[in-house]
Amino acid sequence: MAKKKTVSKSAASSKKSVLSSVDPLVEYGRDVWLAGLGAMSLAQQETNKIGGKALEKGSKLFDQLVKEGSKLEKSTRKNVDTTADDIRGGIEQRVDRVRQTAANNWDKLETVFEDRVARALGRLGVPTADEIQELINEVNHLSREVRELNKQVKGSAVSTSKTAAPKTAQKTAQKTAKKTTSKAA
After folding, report:
1. Domain regions of the chain by residue span
2. pLDDT averaged over the chain?
3. Is the separation of the CB atoms in 58 and 46 below 8 Å?
């Protein structure tokens, strides 16, 4: 028993939707193909009616049609390729312009954002990176000066203590000597 295959409505409708969305150029090409097949069929029918000489003429006509079709195909392909290249070039130029404009706008937006953030931080009293660097440089400079002063103070304190100790000892000795001389007298 052979079962009848049924095509579901969804499959049939999807076929129609695919065919309806086919590019018009493809549809035109299909029509040309069908016209060629029809011409070939008509030529065969005529040759069958007329006979041998008509068969020869029909064959020549068919060859001529093939040559003309080939020439038309070459020129059409050339035109389509040229047009496609022109369209592609135009689209690439537009995309490049849009890309450049977007990059420029992004740079402007970034600059505006940075300026606004800097102003807001300035209003809040937050120092800028330049100001912080200035402070770091100043602290380093002052640290060097303090080290130099410490070296000078230590150097003078050592020399003062070396010279101060003998002087103090001399004064003490002189006082002691005066006291002993005044007691003896």
Report:
1. 23-126, 128-163
2. 76
3. yes
